[in-house]
């Protein structure tokens, strides 16, 4: 087991964060991870406002999440996060999710791009960030991000209108919404029998308020309980995000 | 000032709970109120599971919320709630929202219906509930719920498709979603200049997963910064919820 330093924060599972099984939804977990990353940045003096002064921000590029179990209503979880390295304009960050007994119930990895807001283009991460975040010289638990296979057969297709409540503080669709749209393609019946075990998401383009999107999925029970997902703009031409989900029996 | 007994719980404002102004959204506040009410019931032995054994549940009938200011990212608020009375199958509950200095920043009232799940009809509240919840003999701060005026002119109209993520643990649309749909009718420009000060909602019908809804609004800046809202089923014939919002300058 890798001992993390970095930053940690406790979260309680509230009523509005659980699904029909009384368990925290995967969206809630992603919300916690994002909040924890932002709180870490804030704690080391590199919060949203401070970056805004430099006209920069972090944009999420990838998520990888693996949950052994989901916490239930009223449970408390502690999330630890560690910035494991910077490379040009990429920052990598890992997370460990523990229950109140200290058992690891989930882990996650993420890749973030450091952006110049005005040019809307990646920009080099300042050298002193590594010291401020306490990036370890060598991080043993590194797991590379894989590319995802293309969808070859479309088994489900749903259209969504982007709501104002889908929009982030920066005017674009919040990253958890793409996951929500991907998961809407899974049948109600599959959800009754299976639980999301592993999730990978790659973000490709930002989506502004007021547009429509298309969520497509491929996969079936006999395909090893694995689904491929993609979110396109309404024309179906621009891929906004793609993902893969792996499910295990409840 | 009325001193409440009842139940209280602390909430921190996380990143995913703030709007574009860095303030907790009204949806977040309603989520907190609902969670606090449920936690209170849990604490006195009348939680969701315990009612389920009796084949009963609480269904929200009305909200009334008044916010002096909205808490900001990272702030902690304490919500106190008190069950102020039972009448046949109606339960009334009030809330006070305080910041970390103890200042009252908001207050709310709510009316709940006690339901027989199998018959889907209101049922008489057991006498012993009043003792268990610690309902005061006489509650001074009572504020009656008003009926809302009908919409006579439609100034905005938007359609929504109900998503799985809109659905509650009981298989119906969560009560905060209706408010979300009502607020989508307010223009982006009005939101920049005005802040929601007072909200009233009346819930009329339950909405299942997979349907479409219609959100209509009436009001303008010159109409005293007041809007009327209603949410209808897709045919436009059945009213599912209605509301009134009052806005003050930022």
Automatic annotation (TrEMBL), chains A, B:
Q: Which controlled-vocabulary keywords does the entry list?
A: Fatty acid biosynthesis, Fatty acid metabolism, Hydrolase, Lipid biosynthesis, Lipid metabolism, Transit peptide
> Which residues does the UniProt record annotate as the domain Acyl-ACP thioesterase-like C-terminal?
156-249
Instruction: Give one Pfam hit by family name.
Output: Acyl-ACP_TE
Q: Name one GO molecular function term.
A: acyl carrier activity
Regions crossing the membrane: none
Q: Which residues form a coiled coil?
A: none
Sorted alphabetically, which InterPro entries does this protein's record hold? Answer: Acyl-ACP_TE_C (IPR049427), Acyl-ACP_thioesterase_NHD (IPR002864), FATA/B (IPR045023), HotDog_dom_sf (IPR029069)
Under CDD domains, the record lists: 4HBT (cd00586)
Regarding protein family, the annotation reads: Belongs to the acyl-ACP thioesterase family.
**Name recorded for this polypeptide:** Acyl-ACP thioesterase
Organism, by scientific name, is Desulfitobacterium hafniense (strain Y51)
